[in-house]
Amino acid sequence: MTEAPNTVAFTPERLAKAKEIIARYPEGRQKSALLPLLHLAQEQWGWVSPEVMDYVADLLSILPIEVYEVATFYTMFHLDPVGKHVIEYCRTGPCCLMGGEDVYGYLREKLGVEAGQTTADGKFTVKEVECLAACGWGPVFQIREKYYMNLTRERVDEIIDELSK
Amino acid sequence: MAKKILTEYINVPGIDTFEVYRKHGGYTAVEKALKTMTPEEVVEEAKKSGVRGRGGAGFPMGMKWSFLAKPEGVPRYLVCNADESEPGTFKDHYLMKMIPHLLIEGMIVSSFALGANKSFIYVRGELMYVIRILERAIEEAKEKGFLGKNILGTGYDLELVVQPGGGAYICGEETALLESLEGKRGNPRNKPPFPAIKGLYQSPTVVNNVESISNMPWIINNGGDAYAAIGVGRSTGTKLISASGHIRKPGVYEIELGVSVDEFLNSDEYCGGVRDGHYLKALVAGGSSVPILPAHLITKTANGEDRLMTYESLSDGGFATGTMLGSGGFIVFDETSCIVRNTWNFSRFYHHESCGQCSPCREGTGWMEKVLHRLEHGHGSMHDIDLLVDISKKIEGNTICPLGDAAAWPVASAIRHFREEFEWHVTHPQEATRPGAVYMGSAALV
Ligand SMILES: Cc1cc2nc3c(=O)[nH]c(=O)nc-3n(C[C@H](O)[C@H](O)[C@H](O)COP(=O)(O)O)c2cc1C
Ligand code: SF4
Ligand code: FES
Q1: How many CA atoms lie within 13 A of B385 on its CB side?
Q2: Rounded mean pLDDT, B366-375
Q3: Which residues sit with their C-beta closer than 6 Å to ligand 1?
Q4: Per residue in B258-297, pLDDT tens?
């Protein structure tokens, strides 16, 4: 399980990246960097804690509430600690036509969790999401930036076994 | 062979690199436009081409460009909509990952036409790997002098910024997208003012879909008239169709507008027909938001004419017997599909994605999801079916943005064409809730 960070600061590389991102927007429009910075934060800490949101607010010279209201609107940001691997499967119609419900049911059963839960060993969190723009290659799930497509029970076994190593 | 405008070179190895893309004629449109044409002339070619917005609404792109306000001393923006979140649609994802330079070339030409010096590509955040592909391609283009300051020595400056979303279908709606790009929640704005007058940072802005913009290099190289010569009537050019569901060959296909639905569905060049041993039950032709059609209205219109893949033919018969081309998300259902279950699934999607600003949408989508859940799980009543129709009517047309309509149409059309199947869920709750059970007696199946 990822822990709440006790000292909140980007790594030097990410801080440099954050500054580069902020400089992309016109003068006074630095708030546009909010979503990119939240992604950068989630990349570093795995989720975005209130402390992290305050830190981002500070970097952008905006109010913390402006960060909270955005972080809670968008579904990609994890507002609670998550497992090492977050599996986000697409539950929308076209993926279900391709056997998604069966495959995802199998995945949850294999890991012993319901959607939204993390395994006891902290390795996997399973989340339900909507269409991932990969409908012709469904069923689909995403782990971090990687898409896993044309899923079957056998593929799920392979992927989970590989990640469990 | 059908004409390919966007995908001709898509499978060439290395086409995602500047070098290979350039070898296949890439960036010649930038040279031609910036060196030999005025911005007005580029807009004129877009107009002549008749190309219509490929994000769903089908508004003519050249005309949209000509509405852009041009007050002195105020920057103008071009924003590319790569939020692609409409269920059944995955063409922009495919195009950007396979041939990223095509969109970038289109962005340069289009930004030049509009007089924009900073343009954005807003990509749904889930596609972070595609964002990295685009950013790499932008770096390459910059190194070669096609982006940045004084492009090709013409004095034109352009910077391209790729912006990630955060997971929200509503940010595909253009004003919600602009809010999101400003670092806010994705709440659609009240219109007017339209983005052409007050868009990003309150400046005049054009928002166009990935595919719309990607047509521009070809239009500049070959002329708007050549583009308009492809297709049928006001449906000019080609269209990317995302084909999914129960077909032999799911995937993204570029069609000439005007090919028949029958050919698209059944020929081996495209979907290859319904999967083996099964037969067609229903079709959603243009992404989850458009009305669903039963088998007998798919390849023929209500008048018995061949149904074509065009904006006009797909909507022939209005909502009574037609549908819409929409974003080109072509979802095929065979006889094993439960329409009630799929309708519930789609309603759950719209409820989940409603931004919550207007009560008809916020409350109505939740209510529809609940009633459909009840019907699908064997606890519904006949009254519930009429209730759904009633709710959908109360949402339609009464909201700030079209998500409300998009939520209402799939429900209303499913009941219009598959009412018996809904009723069967009420009269046969035990059978209907057996896993995998599907109503087989509908007239629509004959
Ligand atoms: C709820 C909703 C979602 C939308 N999603 C998208 C999308 O993902 N991509 C897109 O290009 N247009 C989308 N649109 C349409 C846009 O508002 C806008 O019409 C389009 O980006 C304009 O570009 P075009 O004229 O080139 O199609 C959506 C509209 C609505 C109401
Ligand atoms: S129709 Fe729905 S999504 Fe659109 S603004 Fe209203 S509440 Fe938000
Ligand atoms: S429905 Fe699953 S990716 Fe679109």
Answers
A1: 20
A2: 98
A3: B 53-57, 59, 61, 81, 83-86, 170, 172-174, 207-209, 212, 401-403, 406
A4: 999 999 999 999 999 999 999 999 999 999 999 999 999 9
Of A75, A98, A134, the CB nearest to B93: A134
Query: Residues 6 or more apart from B102 whose CB is under 8 A from it?
Result: B6, B21, B26, B95, B214, B217
Please work out whether the CB of residue A129 comes within 6 Å of at least one atom of ligand 3.
no
Contact B75, B260 (CB under 8 A): no
Cα distances (Å, whole numbers) of residue B360 to A35, B57, B76, B108, B357? 29, 22, 34, 41, 9
Backbone angles phi, psi at A45, to 5 degrees: -105, -10
**Max Cα-Cα span within chain B:** 74
**Ordered structural domains, chain B, with CATH:** 18-229 (3.40.50.11540), 234-334 (3.10.20.600), 339-437 (1.20.1440.230)
Start-end of CATH 3.40.30.10 domains in chain A = 85-164
Whether residue B341 is predicted with pLDDT greater than 70 in this model: the reply is yes
User: What is the per-residue pLDDT for B443?
Assistant: 44
b (16+ CB within 10 A) / e for A11-46 = eeeeeebbeebbebbeeeebbbbbbbbbbbbbebbb
Q: Which residue has the tokens 């006790």?
A: A6
Q: Is the ipTM of this complex over 0.90?
A: yes
pLDDT digits (tens, 9 = 90+) for B5-35: 999 999 999 999 999 999 999 999 999 999 9
Terminal Cα distance for chain A, rounded: 16
- The C-alpha torsion from B109 through A27 and B175 to B113, rounded to 10°, is -20
Give per-residue pLDDT as tens, B284-330. Answer: 999 999 999 999 999 999 999 999 999 999 999 999 999 999 999 99
B349/A33 touch (CB, cutoff 8 Å), yes or no: no
Q: A34, A131, A140: best mutation site toward chain B, by most B Cβ within 10 Å?
A: A131
Q: What is the mean pLDDT of residues A34-46?
A: 98
Q: Which amino acid is at B248?
A: R
pLDDT score for B446: 35
Reported as type and span, the H/E element at residue A72 is: none
The CATH fold assigned to A5-73 is Arc Repressor Mutant, subunit A (1.10.10)
The reported pTM is 0.97
pLDDT band at B445 (very low <50, low <70, confident <90, very high): very low
CATH 1.10.10.1590 positions along chain A are 5-73
Cis peptide before B164 (omega within 30 of 0): no
CATH 3.40.30.10 fits A85-164, yes or no: yes
CA atoms within 13 Å, Cβ hemisphere of A37? 32
Give the model's pLDDT for residue A1.
Answer: 52
3-state helix, strand, coil in chain B (%, to 5): 45, 15, 40
